[in-house]
Amino acid sequence: MQKFSLALSLLILLFVSCQSQPAVPYKYQVPENINDGLDVGTLDEVGIDTTLIVKGINKIRQGSFDEVHSMLVYKDGKLVLEEYFDGHKYKWDGPDHHGEWVAWDRSMPHHIMSATKSITSACLAIALEKGFIESVHQSIFDYLPEYQHLNSERKNKITIEHLLTMTSGLEWDEWGAPLSSSSNDLVGLWVHCEDPINCILERPLLDDPGTSYTYSGGNMVVLGEIIRTATKMKIDEFSKKYLFEPLGVDSSTWAQKFDNGVIYAGGGLIITPRDMVKFGVTFLNNGDWNGKHIISEQWVEKCTTEYRNNKSINIPGQASGRHGYSYSWWLKSYTNSGKKINMYNAGGWGGQEIMILPELNTVVVFTGGNYLSNVRVFDILEDYIIPAIN
């Protein structure tokens, strides 16, 4: 009996050790220069307190924030932190939406979930600047010739801007049911609809467009279709040509498509954390990447400005407080040492974040697997990263 208990204890210890980070304390390593367009440097070079960062990373490795898969920090023109951790790959039908347990590294693309919305928004910005689309204030039906039968006097007032800002007024419930349930309107598109665009646009208009906020992946699906009809390119082709290739990004995959070929433009993108940093740096630099113009400065300003009444929004599953919302970016501010620090972020289910802090000249990227547990990467930002910079 004693031998059995000892063997059982050893098996339990082995199992637990395989599901956690090594017990050896973390030691800071400078990111490797892989000639991908990102210059690298040290935390000390940009004035970041290494001790506080190391403390935060040890907390991540101990599981204090559940599953964080990566944490990257870019400041003052340099990638100064790049760390990866063990965790589960995403699997829709797995327990807690978890698949295989892996040691994440920089070569492995990650599902960025709804952070995709900010990239779809950037594609719209490029389509506007290149003249494929005239104005965000146009009716969405100007670019939906196959769906004119769903147009009406009231629905015709829904503009592209209303899709970007989640203020279309169309009935939608994405936060009232889990993403494992077909009663969630987003999941329902996959389960119940042959044509997702038709299913979205046939919904009742509950509020006048532009007057109320309702988080809707459906809005972004329609926006992706508008990009397709305006540019004659699906969003995977368009983003590759006009966004990712100029950024030197070759990791992008739009992984989720409906049965009729419509791409899920609200959350279907897979990309590496380093390439998430590149996208964030482009916005930090007012739309430029390494001296190359990508996004207009005016669009970046729209993304950093709260839209009308899109304020004090509590995001389910996040211990992050209240946020504002702009052109498919979240907005939040912090106070540290008496100074106000503004942030806007592309956020995705499970802890996928591209955080831009203009006053600190900093971009922070996280990926994670907290699909059914509270996302606490904002705690890491507030308790360890911002104080380390100040």
Summarize the structure.
The protein contains 11 helices and 15 strands.
Number of helices: 11
Q: How far apart lie the N and C ends?
A: 57 Å
Counting DSSP E segments of at least 2 residues, the number of strands comes to: 15
Instruction: Work out the helicity level.
Output: 25-40%
Class of secondary structure makeup: alpha+beta
Main sheet overview: 8 strands, antiparallel
Question: How much beta, percentage-wise?
Answer: 15-25%
**Unreliable stretches:** 1-18
Total domain units? 2
Could you tell me the radius of gyration in angstroms?
21 Å
Describe it for me?
This protein is an alpha+beta fold and 390 residues long. It has two domains: 31-106 and 278-289 and 306-389, no CATH class; 116-254, Beta-lactamase. The protein is 31% helix and 19% strand. It has helices at 2-18, 50-61, 116-129, 160-164, 185-192, 196-201, 217-231, 235-247, 273-284, 297-303, 377-389, and strands spanning 68-75, 78-84, 86-90, 98-103, 110-111, 253-254, 269-271, 288-289, 292-293, 313-314, 322-325, 330-336, 339-348, 352-357, 362-368. The strands form four sheets. An eight-stranded antiparallel sheet has the order 2-1-15-14-13-12-11-10. Helix 3 packs parallel to helix 7 and helix 3 (116-129) packs across helix 8. It starts with a helix and ends with a helix. Residues 1-18 have low confidence and may be disordered.
